[in-house]
């Protein structure tokens, strides 16, 4: 938690409000120095600065984003549907401050170390392995997750994720050159191996794709909710003040 320091402007404001003309019982109980007034609700109350502290210390400040990890492979129809219908629209509504997405493009692939590099075998063939590495390289080359996810969503939502890669990178202002170079280099090979390690480390091990975890946890219930209404699942899990997009969700009311 961040150390609490009240800047002098706020301090003046607070003193101005509780200073003169309020010799009430509560203010007499305010035995704390102004520097700690907003550090605790009871203290704020005794010093009559509750409202000021709310503004100053919004409850969302310390809530971490909800972690949603997707273990998938580039050509699996269910994965493409989940990205297009759930993950991408939910992320657009909530943003990186509320949902922290981890993409792991590997899925049901297998790997073997041959002649000093990894050889991948993919469920939907060679093109799927190519798509996995391209998306892994996009995550590596892009300067931020937003750029990477825009590119990857564009690929997964297109009729052919692999041949659309170049155009999708362009549209997200991500040069395709470095992505393509990465995908055929030993760096790309090692990065895709890392995706394999992350996938093989799942506990419980994945049985199918897409495989979804919520804050690192996979259960059948989480999987079903994520695939039917990810927005509600993330909104209900988020510990901070729900963002506007959470109250606008129409299909599920929080219990
Ligand atoms: C997002 O998730 C990643 C991977 O789990 C983690 O390393 C990172 O710290 C998280 N970021 C935030 C802001 O919580
Ligand atoms: C490994 O590389 C050597 C030399 O290039 C080659 O002769 C051999 O067939 C390769 N092995 C496999 C399994 O690809």
TrEMBL record:
Pfam families: GILT
Positions of the Saposin A-type domain: 23-61
Localisation: Secreted
CC per GO annotation: extracellular region; lysosome
A single GO molecular function term of this UniProt record: oxidoreductase activity, acting on a sulfur group of donors, disulfide as acceptor
Protein family according to the UniProt entry: Belongs to the GILT family.
Name by which UniProt lists this protein: Gamma-interferon-inducible lysosomal thiol reductase
The organism of origin for this protein: Stichopus monotuberculatus (Sea cucumber)
Gene: GILT
